Amino acid sequence: MTTWVRCHWDEEDIWFYFEVDAEGWVTRQVELQGPELTPIAAASLDEWRQAHDAGRLDEYDSRFGITAELPVSEWADHDPEQLTFEAFEEVWGSARGQIASRPG
Asked: Are strands 14-20 and 26-33 parallel, antiparallel or unpaired?
C-alpha cells in the first residue's frame, strides 16, 4: 500500500514530501525550502534507476536530487503528517515543473 506524507526540518527550513511504498521505501520525494517553498528536489526512484542504468546519474542527481536511501521505518524521530494522493500530486507536479523549466 502506498502512502503519502510530509514533514518539516526546522534547521534548514525544508518541507519534505514523500511517497512511500508498502515496504517503507521512498519512491518519490519533493523538497521545498524557505518561506517561498522553493523546490530544491523532486526525485523519483524509478527515474533515478533509469538514469543510473543509462550512465546519466550525475545529470539526474544535479537536476532532480535523490530519494531517501533508507526505508522510513529506520528514521529516528520521524513523525510525518499524512497526505492524500491528490495533495502529494499537486506538490509533485508543481515542483517538477519548476525544476524542469530551469536552465540545465
From this structure: antiparallel
